[in-house]
Amino acid sequence: MNIYVLLKRTFDTEEKISISNGKIEDEGAEYIINPYDEYAVEEAINLKDAHGGEVTVVTVGDEEAEKQLRTALAMGADKSVLINTEDDLEEGDQYTTVRILEAYFKENEPDIILAGNVAIDEASGQVGPRLAERLDIPFVTTITDISIDGETVNIERDVEGDVEKVETTLPLLVTCQQGLNEPRYPSLPGIMKAKKKPLEEIEIDDLDLEEDDVEAKTKTLEIFLPPEKQAGKIIEGEPDEQVKELVSLLKNESKVL
Amino acid sequence: MNFELTKEQEMTRKMVRDFAEEKIAPRAIDIDKNSEFPEDLFKEMGELGLLGIPFPEEYGGSGGDTVTYALAVEEIGRVCGSTGLSYAAAVSLGASPLYYFGTEEQKQEFLIPLAKGEGLASFGLTEPNAGSDAGGTQTKAVLEGDHYVLNGEKSWITNAEYARSITITAQAGKREDGKNIISAFIVPKDTPGMTIRSDYDKMGVRGSNTSEIVLEDVKVPKENILGDPKKGFGQFLHTLDGGRISIAALAVGIAQASLDRALAYAKERKQFGEPISKFQAIQFKLADMAMEVELARNMVLKAAWLKDEGKPFTKESAYAKLFASETAFRSANQAIQIHGGYGYMREFEVERFLRDAKLLEIGEGTSEIQRMVIARQLGC
């Protein structure tokens, strides 16, 4: 089976993030594999173990993403592809990424493509479904369980806390939700083996794309951090006085009652 | 000159940090409080290949280097000194002598399971009356036919209760000048006559297993003598040089944890209307801690690098062990001070850092012994 994973390098939202000149500061930010994409890598390896084949991890980004690709290889993926847009593109959006991936997959024959449900940075959740549309294959989002039998695929997906069961067929694109699996740590032997696994680097030229073909359809106007949390207010006095004070504050100040 | 880590070293550090924070950190308080050896964590660490980092693949290891190993020890030490100490001892004292000095047969039988993480091993050098003065070893080994018979007593042996084999040092005859020949013998677990007791009630690293070993007519096949019978003493010195790097790395972990906790607390704690991190008295403490942690780490990595390059590292590993362990103690002490009364409480963890750090100024050669090693290297 030809198993593909779409992986995004993203900053760790658990670490401190700072913004200057409308951009997220690179310095000091910690970069990781998008956590939802980790579920995709783990599931891809499990599918390979069960059905045979090969796992290829694909990312669109710059050279810095090599570390995240190597980590996926250390977890057990077989090959990785970096579509390096550093020299060709200033800005990109979901449309850009989808067009690039479309061109890449036109030259390959995926049986299944796994992606994260969303990337934790911009959380648009668009690349997976839009790519499937472009490739004219079915897609199922937010999956929490998958089993493949021949061409038939049975999936459980998370729908706002409920479970929906879906039957579909290969070739297929799915996006992975928390709960699908517990991603493994890359083991030491895995890390050492990853050194020898192929990491192919291509540019959009290699996919017969021009800059104009992939020009972003959207424009980011502003990026800002959520307002800092204000200090709480402590209400003093006897319990019944406190209750009165609280109710009056909820009514008059925050106007929620 | 290049201070950058390789991708493999970076990835290993990240993996061990994630593992340490998710799996070890939540249990660190209980491991210390209940003196519980986290056997299950060692099983998981074995599966991840952590117990075989500095050994080649042909012996079941991961084919990493000493730098990678030092980074792993630091990350584990950062969340739990007990687990960090048992980890460092398992690799540097348990497995390393077998790798460096063992015969091919000994490596096959005793090293491979350790490097694969299927078991732990210990190094039995210290005795009630002989520590760094290894020449004063009183345990005796006598050759009788095809066997050596060992009698004696060992103290403060890390991981012995959980070891599948213990490398025991003993007198095995006399040199021409009348001095004792000290050799090492691989004693498999459950060998009759070997009694292991773990009754020590320790100040720190309480979750790391520490045992007393009594040897009464313990018979081991004569092939179990480790490496060259005449070079026993040099073997221990080399083993201890390597062990010092790992103890130093553990110390850097504890020092870093102390700094992390102290800095976070100082930014949060408000007194006189502002965070105490705005007060110069606290700032100076934090600045000193940060500087010393970084200096200690640099020395550890340099010693590890020298070892990887096959260059002499005796002096540098003593520098690293001495400076890093004293840095860990100072940093933990200052972290408690910055926390005030809270720092004296177990749940804030910094008091544990101090108790754990104290061991690092004693184990594998006290700070005084490190100064002697350095002085000897200076030609004194």
TrEMBL record, chain A:
GO biological process assignments: carboxylic acid catabolic process
Source organism, top-level taxon: Bacteria
Gene Ontology cellular-component terms listed: cytosol
Example of a GO MF term: electron transfer activity
Gene3D superfamilies xref list: HUPs
Domain Electron transfer flavoprotein alpha/beta-subunit N-terminal: 21-211
Keyword field: Electron transport, Transport
Co-factor(s): AMP
Key word Zinc-finger present: no
CDD domains the record matches: ETF_beta (cd01714)
Listed SMART domains: ETF
Family: Belongs to the ETF beta-subunit/FixA family.
Function: The electron transfer flavoprotein serves as a specific electron acceptor for other dehydrogenases. It transfers the electrons to the main respiratory chain via ETF-ubiquinone oxidoreductase (ETF dehydrogenase).
Binding partners and assembly: Heterodimer of an alpha and a beta subunit.
UniProt name for this protein: Electron transfer flavoprotein subunit beta
Taxonomic source organism: Salimicrobium jeotgali
Lineage of the organism: Bacteria, Bacillati, Bacillota, Bacilli, Bacillales
UniProtKB/TrEMBL annotation, chain B:
Keyword Flavoprotein: yes
All copies of domain Acyl-CoA oxidase/dehydrogenase middle, residue ranges: 122-218
Keyword Repeat among record annotations: no
Cofactor: FAD
Reaction(s) catalysed (UniProt annotation): a 2,3-saturated acyl-CoA + A = a 2,3-dehydroacyl-CoA + AH2
Gene3D superfamilies given in the database record: Acyl-CoA dehydrogenase/oxidase, N-terminal domain (1.10.540.10), Butyryl-CoA Dehydrogenase, subunit A, domain 2 (2.40.110.10), Butyryl-CoA Dehydrogenase, subunit A, domain 3 (1.20.140.10)
GO MF annotation list: acyl-CoA dehydrogenase activity; flavin adenine dinucleotide binding
Domain Acyl-CoA dehydrogenase/oxidase N-terminal: start-end pairs: 6-118
InterPro entries from the UniProt entry: Acyl-CoA_DH_CS, Acyl-CoA_Oxase/DH_mid-dom, Acyl-CoA_Oxase/DH_mid-dom_sf, AcylCo_DH-like_C, AcylCo_DH/oxidase_C, AcylCoA_DH/ox_N, AcylCoA_DH/ox_N_sf, AcylCoA_DH/oxidase_NM_dom_sf
Domain Acyl-CoA dehydrogenase/oxidase C-terminal: 231-378
PROSITE patterns per the UniProt record, alphabetical: ACYL_COA_DH_1, ACYL_COA_DH_2
Pfam families: Acyl-CoA_dh_1, Acyl-CoA_dh_M, Acyl-CoA_dh_N
Keywords recorded for this protein, A-Z: FAD, Flavoprotein, Oxidoreductase
Family under the similarity heading: Belongs to the acyl-CoA dehydrogenase family.
Record protein name field: Acyl-CoA dehydrogenase
Organism: Salimicrobium jeotgali
